[in-house]
Amino acid sequence: MELKEILSKCDHTLLSQSATWEQIKALCDDGIKYHTASVCIPASYVKQAKEYVGDKLAICTVIGFPNGYDTTAAKCFMAYDAVQNGADEVDMVINIGWVKDGLYDKVLDEIKKIKLACCGRLLKVIIETCLLTEEEKIKMCGVVSESGADYIKTSTGFSTGGATKEDVALMKKHCAPSLKIRKLDNLMR
Questions:
Q1: pLDDT tens digits, residue range 13-37?
Q2: Range(s) of the domain holding residue 158
Q3: Looking at the chain, which runs of residues are DSSP E strands?
Q4: Interatomic CA distance for residues 64 and 152, integer angstroms
Q5: pTM of the complete model
Q6: CA proximity to 94, closest of 118, 113, 119
Q7: What is the CATH number of the domain that holds 82?
Q8: Helices (DSSP H) in 70-133: which residue ranges?
């Protein structure tokens, strides 16, 4: 696979708490220059970034980030607000506490509601594999496959560890063929 093809599958990301508009703008310039899949940025910069790049680059933002424990209503509002501001893609973090409590139906319902709030835009679901047991990961592969989400992602990059080859292999084995997989390394924040 050539570098250009690899970059076309990458979300160029800057989610640090201290990110400035100048840094976001530079990220967008790089995303356009290198033809990345998108730039993933804080929600507060989505409108400005979309106006800056127009249709040259997809804009992605995160909701429920990085801990996932916002209420479903709040996550739905965040997703809808992001789309109204120009987001082409939304990355959401699951409620990991619900997974630990075995409340998979609640997690599924939340993902479905957020997918509706995305108004047809891409939804990527971050399951934070470093915090889950193998059984929980397998169960989440089924939940996300059933949800209508477009992607399942390994991690936020803000927790106790990043993705592993084993996590990606497990997801490939247990996710529906229609569900795309994104691996996040803790390289860029």
A1: 999 999 999 999 999 999 999 999 9
A2: 3-182
A3: 11-13, 38-41, 58-63, 89-93, 122-126, 151-153, 180-182
A4: 15
A5: 0.94
A6: 113
A7: 3.20.20.70
A8: 72-84, 96-100, 104-117
